[in-house]
UniProtKB/TrEMBL annotation, chains A, B:
It comes from the Bacteria. Belongs to the flavin oxidoreductase frp family. This is Oxygen-insensitive NADPH nitroreductase. It is an enzyme of class 1 (oxidoreductase). It comes from Chengkuizengella marina.
Amino acid sequence: MNDTINLLKSHRSIRKYKSDPIPQEYVDEILTSAQMASSSSHVQAYSVIGVMDQEKKKKLSILSGNQTYVADCPLFFVWCADLYRLKAACDMEQTEMISGTMENFIVSTVDVALAAQNAAIAAESLGLGIVYIGGIRNQSKEVTELLQLPELVYPVFGMCLGFPDQDPMVRPRLQTNMIYHQENYNTSKTTNELMDYNQIINEYYLDRTKGKVDTNWSKQMSNKFQTASRNHLRKYLEDQGFGFSE
Amino acid sequence: MNDTINLLKSHRSIRKYKSDPIPQEYVDEILTSAQMASSSSHVQAYSVIGVMDQEKKKKLSILSGNQTYVADCPLFFVWCADLYRLKAACDMEQTEMISGTMENFIVSTVDVALAAQNAAIAAESLGLGIVYIGGIRNQSKEVTELLQLPELVYPVFGMCLGFPDQDPMVRPRLQTNMIYHQENYNTSKTTNELMDYNQIINEYYLDRTKGKVDTNWSKQMSNKFQTASRNHLRKYLEDQGFGFSE
């Protein structure tokens, strides 16, 4: 349809990078692009910590569940929801900030995701590869200490960036009519179409792993959602000043 | 730098649309682009409700705080975090889903934001304008009933789409070094640079409103964060099956 849509449609996560550093002007363009994403009432409730220091990347890699590409990528971004700056603005105006609401938690979490996705697209448009790292939530407190995050800031996800040194397949998504509903949510869609999707995903894994991985989507998902993960989050977030009382 | 980055950097929210409908092939491209965004462990924990029905758009417009552009745009998307489909996958595998954790809430909220931002960019690349509607969280329960959302689904934000019938200015963002920290979060950045930013934003408002609006960022933010908003959210989300106990 156009080059931008072709770019969006060709996304694959990249987990192996060339050693080449990322030019500073690329980083600048990526950050400026990130900032132009929409933000709820212009609150801009996010920050990015850019990590290039090898020792620190190594620590973050271990804290994220030993994902080696966190250490190996030339630049690692830690995307944080950030209400700290807004508190500073309230302090300037000598008003008391009410920060600990579900609404403010959602606003800051969405804000950082929109900005990060713009960054991802800008990076890919420059020939870089990226992968999001949810594992940054494995040990939130340790990451917070390592990056000296103040109150009202929490790391939502990481992102590795670098020039790709692999060319993986695009992973097939759910059928579009599974995620898109016209006028009303249609609960009757799920079962039959999930079975079709299971077959698509099964073939994708068999193909990608030359027959070694023989699974499908519902198997993967049911495995994943049988156990609660990252159980520290509620307490950690409250310790950081986020709140969920209303 | 390239066309995609130029597109990202030229974003402005559009709130006035031509009456022309959006061609179906555009909608298809927007949805396919949305689906290619990254998703945590491939969970794809989101759904979109596309609303074209005039009566329903009118109701959503009222429920979102009387934002007339919700009724006036040719297509309104309601972006939902969605764990319902994952429960269906667990049911298929006869396993019990653990849904009510902070982690699952974050995953689904981030997933829908990444997909929506891809949709926004795809739409803008096709010459459409968009605006996010956080007001969809004003009356979550009523929106949920109107769109027949099942358990484990919540509307995170709306999005108006249409061909632009206005050409607003780009709103200046925070200085990039305010949102970007190298290696560690730098709390010392805030005060002086916020004062500079206040001046930039003050000039932008004076310019955009021909002198009528004379405010700045810290004033706006301190006004906004003095009161808690959308206090129903915690209870509503728990009623929908989301949880925050850990």
